[in-house]
Amino acid sequence: MKITVVVVGLLIVLAVLAAWYGQRWIRMRRGGGVSVALRWRPDNARSSWHLGLGRYEGDEFVWYRVWSLRTGPDRVFQRESMQIADRRDPSGSEAYAVPEGSTVLRCESETQEAIEIAMGPGALTGFLSWLESAPPGRRLPRAS
């Protein structure tokens, strides 16, 4: 009897979590989210890629990790401080950890740690347009 109650309780908790997560994912996609893989501390050999959804909210690029129970974004990047330091294709096993056809951008900031963002061609075009549409007078160094 006690085992049945525990199992039913556990199933209810799992159903609530699945419903919440599904609703979060749908809401993010409808809000204009794009599939993006992110890696922070890219110079660390142990850093790995994390899949998520990125959204543009004014002067901020917010990133939500796919497998997260957070209600808010996992990372927030300010347009005014982001600079593209390098651009490359995924190498080796990276190609399996990032969205298909991705380009990897290394972004550096004076206020945050260096990150690498991997995104497909459509998302890349949108990201570069967003980054370059900074207010007049802002200098945007570009990687060659």
TrEMBL record:
Matching InterPro entries: DUF2550
Pfam annotation, one family: DUF2550
Domain of life: Bacteria
Identification of the protein by name: DUF2550 domain-containing protein
Annotated organism of origin: Amycolatopsis nalaikhensis
